[in-house]
Structures are given as structure tokens and as C-alpha cells.
Amino acid sequence: MRFDALIRLLLPREERFQELLALDTRNLVRAAELFLDIAGTSDIEGRRIKLVELKALEHEGDQITRRLIEALNSTFITPFDREDIRSIAVDIDDVLDYLEGIGQYLVLFEIPDAPEPLTRFAEILLELCRQIDGLTELIWDLGNTAKISAGMVRVSELENQADALFLTSLGALFRKGSDRDALEVMKWKEIYQGLEDACDKCKDFTHVLGNVVVKNA
């Protein structure tokens, strides 16, 4: 192999990582949109059908994550810190896993309603996933630092809204005089905890993104 061809082979394939991460985040947004549909309906059979679609998106996300890890393992020089790229991919995958897992709870627990806190959580998660998609697109040009910072602030605001919603929802769940039985309380606590954890994982994503910006400024 000629020396210049060897150098080209070893140079970072930035477009490969950019393409794969774009596929990953767009898949995540589609999953969040579908999850909002699942959360917003009280039709249990309709939820079952949509859960099959959500599982397919979760599987697609797993495949994209696998391709990203393979790209990391086969690329000598990466456009950003190798562990940061891995962490971004894992965080995206974790958020998708939470969405699919909570969707399963809603079906397995045969939840017969769609209360306002559930749909509001789903709306927050959809906006968080859209922020993740937009921010991931911006990191390839660090001239976008101001936009990245603004997006990270917005993610923090949304996560704070989710924290407040979580506490309010738990308070209502355990309020004295509530007519909910113990089993129903346990089901909803599990669902709300999963929703809160999903929002926290979106915030974790911005921590990794912040590392990328600082390291490459």
C-alpha cells in the first residue's frame, strides 16, 4: 500500500460517525413521538400495537449503536475523544431503552387511562429528544458553541420541569385520602420513576456534550 493511501486510511472518518449519530438521534425522536402516542391514549389494544412499533425502533437503535461501537474499534483516529463518542452513543441508547421499557409497563400493567402527568412527561421527553437530535448535529462545527450552550440550557430547563412533575405526581399518588389501592400506587410509582430516569439520562447526554466542546474548543 502506498504511504499516502495508508495515511488516508488512518485519518478520522468523521462523516461515518456523523452519519451514524444522526441516524441514531432521528430514530430516538421517532421513538419519542411514538411514545407520546402510547402515553396519550387509554386504548390498551392500541397501545399494544404501537408498542410493537416502538420495540422495532428500539431494535434499530441497538443496531446503530453496534455499528457505532464497531466504527470506534476500527478507526485509528476519531474526530472527538473516543470515550466521549462511546458515551454519547450509550446515552442515546439508554434513553431509547427507557422509552421502550415504560411503554411495556403501560401495556403489561394494563393501565386504563392517560392522566395529565403521564402525557406531560411524554411531551417533555419528546422535546428533550429533539434537543438531543439538534445538539448532536451542531457538535460537528464548534463554531456553533453558542447554539450548543443554549441547547444545553434548554435541556436543563426541561429536566427541571420533569423533576418538579415527578415530585408533584408522587405527592398526588401518596396523598392521604387517595382512593388508589396499593397495587395501583406501585404501578404508577414504577412508571413515574422510569420517566424521571429517562429525563435524567437526557441531562447526562449534555454533560458528555459539554466535555466535547471543552476538549475541542
Short structural description:
The protein has 217 residues and is mostly helical.
Give the SSE layout.
Elements: H1 3-10, H2 14-39, H3 44-74, H4 82-108, H5 116-138, H6 145-173, H7 182-216
Helix pairs in contact: 2-3, 2-4, 2-5, 3-4, 4-7, 5-6, 5-7, 6-7
Task: Characterize the structure shown.
This protein has 217 residues and is mostly helical. It has a single domain, classed as Methane Monooxygenase Hydroxylase, Chain G, domain 1 (Up-down Bundle), CATH 1.20.58.220. The protein has 7 helices and no strands. The chain has helices at residues 3-10, 14-39, 44-74, 82-108, 116-138, 145-173, 182-216. Helix 2 runs parallel beside helix 4 (82-108).
Please state the overall shape, judged from the principal axes of the Cα atoms: globular
Count of helical stretches? 7
How many β strands by DSSP? 0
At the first level of CATH, the class is Mainly Alpha
State the CATH topology: Methane Monooxygenase Hydroxylase, Chain G, domain 1
Report the CATH superfamily: Phosphate transport system protein phou homolog 2, domain 2
Number of domains: 1
| Beta-strand residue fraction | under 5%
Low-confidence segments: 1-12
Order of helices and strands: HHHHHHH
Indicate the radius of gyration in whole angstroms: 20 Å
Structural class: mainly alpha
**N- to C-terminal separation?**
35 Å
Helix content: over 70%
Major sheet: none
The CATH architecture can be given as Up-down Bundle
The pLDDT mean sits at 89
